[in-house]
């Protein structure tokens, strides 16, 4: 994704006859955005503007190039990028026609094992929810998912339970 952003920003800069290296980083504070480019300082020298004003001159072109699902903001000399949820769920899964998930697998997911020889507790419910979420995510990413929910109703533990209540 960093490479895709860097290439797009470089394309926009070249279209405006601006020559600058593009570095993409993850900002130290996630409230600033998903990615950050320390581009304002280099642009400020070339355009003879303050870093925020220099960045403001290219934002309309970047918005036109990347579309409505990629949002730009300025923080000092940094151009911050935030992706919409829709972008991350659709376009974010593939770039340049390459899928990030290389191969679909068949997955057997056991996500709850209720044991009637002891009390059921909140953990059993929590893991039932988590297992369901994991199964859904695996299905959405192209895997064949089979789920199992075990209830221990046979064997030595059940024999002990039977003996203890008789």
Structural notes for this entry:
About 3% of the residues have low confidence. The protein starts with a helix and ends with a helix. The chain is built from 6 helices and 7 strands, in the order H-E-H-H-E-E-H-E-E-E-H-E-H. 11% of the residues are buried. It is an alpha+beta fold and 166 residues long. A hairpin with a 2-residue loop joins strand 2 and strand 3.
**Gap between N and C termini:** 64 Å
**What is the number of E strands?**
7
Beta-strand level of the residues, as a percent range?
15-25%
Q: What is the topology, as strand order, of the major beta sheet?
A: 1-3-2
Largest sheet: 3 strands, antiparallel
Which structural class best describes the helix and strand composition? Answer: alpha+beta
Summed up, the helix count is 6
Uncertain regions: pLDDT < 50 for 5+ in a row? 96-100
How would you describe the shape?
Answer: elongated
Oligomer: single chain
Spell the H/E element sequence. Answer: HEHHEEHEEEHEH
Radius of gyration: 26 Å
Instruction: Report the average pLDDT across residues.
Output: 80
| Helix coverage percent | 40-55%
Describe the protein's topology.
Elements: H1 2-15, E1 35-37, H2 40-47, H3 51-66, E2 70-75, E3 78-83, H4 85-89, E4 94-95, E5 98-99, E6 106-114, H5 122-140, E7 144-151, H6 156-165
Parallel strand pairs: 6-7
Antiparallel strand pairs: 1-3, 2-3, 4-5
Helix pairs in contact: 1-3, 2-3
